[in-house]
């Protein structure tokens, strides 16, 4: 039913119930970022050269949506409403401060829930459906990597900022379906059927 319910683990009493919605009013303090395609002519020359090594020539970035009220696009599919309705996946960050939520009716979006303040802090709306999202293992950081059906771009979230990252060229059959973090949180592997892309995180 697209509702997030939090319970007390001692007596199972309901603490909070929130609607994971695609609509946001003027009262909502949620940060909303939408992935937008940008022209390669608008970027720095060093970035242009780097893009020659990525798997796709287009580039994207997250754009902050400050206008309220706002309504995010819902998933359109030939499947029945029952199959596409409700929260599909919930993942806690290792430090327990955030949850990443995927709702089937908005399959291109990831909702970041603030556990301390019991509210949706951030929404990341993408151009393609989300395949996988995984938090980094470090408890001192909240790092979320998001994989969508656009295999040329990896999406990153932290409480301090968001980014769209171009990936190196792989064979034309490459299609990533899994994100695996290094136990120390210094690298990730994007696993496809026949290939694996390894990415270093940070310096």
Main sheet: strands, sense, barrel: 6 strands, mixed
Would you identify the regions where 5 or more consecutive residues have pLDDT less than 50?
none
Topology, number of strands: 17
Using only CA atoms, what is the Rg? Answer: 18 Å
Strands side by side in the biggest sheet: 5-4-10-9-8-7
How large a portion of the residues is in β-strands, by DSSP E? 35-45%
SS element count, helices: 1
In percent, how helical is the residue content?
Answer: under 10%
Overall mean pLDDT score?
Answer: 84
- Topology pattern, helix = H, strand = E: EEEEHEEEEEEEEEEEEE
Question: Which outline best applies?
Answer: globular
Report the structural category.
mainly beta
Ends apart, CA distance between termini: 42 Å
Short characterization:
With 203 residues, this protein is mainly beta. Helices cover 3% and strands 45% of the residues. The termini are far apart.
Characterise this structure.
- The chain is mainly beta.
- Helices cover 3% and strands 45% of the residues.
- The chain contains 1 helix and 17 strands.
- The protein has one helix at 45-51, and strands at residues 3-7, 14-19, 23-24, 31-38, 59-64, 70-71, 87-92, 98-103, 109-114, 119-125, 130-135, 144-148, 153-158, 161-166, 178-181, 187-191, 196-200.
- It has a 6-stranded mixed β-sheet, with no helix packed on it. The protein has a 4-stranded antiparallel β-sheet with strand order 11-12-13-14, with no helix packed on it.
- The longest helix has 7 residues, at 45-51.
- The chain is globular, with a radius of gyration of 18 Å.
- The model has no long low-confidence stretch (mean pLDDT 84).
């Amino acid at each position: 039913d697209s509702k997030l319910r939090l319970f007390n683990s001692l007596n199972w009493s309901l603490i909070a119930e929130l609607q994971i919605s695609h609509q946001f009013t003027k009262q909502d303090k949620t940060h909303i970022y939408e992935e937008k395609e940008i022209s390669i002519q608008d970027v720095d020359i060093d970035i242009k050269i780097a893009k020659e090594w990525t798997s796709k020539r287009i580039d994207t970035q997250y754009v902050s949506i400050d206008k309220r009220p706002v309504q995010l696009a819902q998933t359109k599919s030939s499947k029945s409403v029952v199959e596409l309705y409700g929260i599909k996946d919930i993942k806690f960050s290792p430090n327990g401060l955030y949850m990443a939520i995927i709702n089937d009716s908005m399959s291109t979006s990831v909702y970041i829930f603030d556990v301390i303040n019991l509210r949706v802090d951030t929404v990341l709306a993408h151009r393609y459906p989300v395949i996988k999202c995984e938090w980094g293992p470090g408890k001192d950081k909240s790092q979320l990597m998001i994989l969508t059906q656009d295999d040329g771009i990896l999406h990153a979230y932290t409480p301090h900022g968001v980014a769209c990252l171009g990936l190196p060229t792989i064979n034309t059959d490459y299609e990533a379906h899994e994100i695996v973090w290094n136990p120390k949180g210094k690298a990730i592997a994007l696993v496809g059927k026949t290939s694996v892309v390894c990415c270093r995180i940070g310096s």
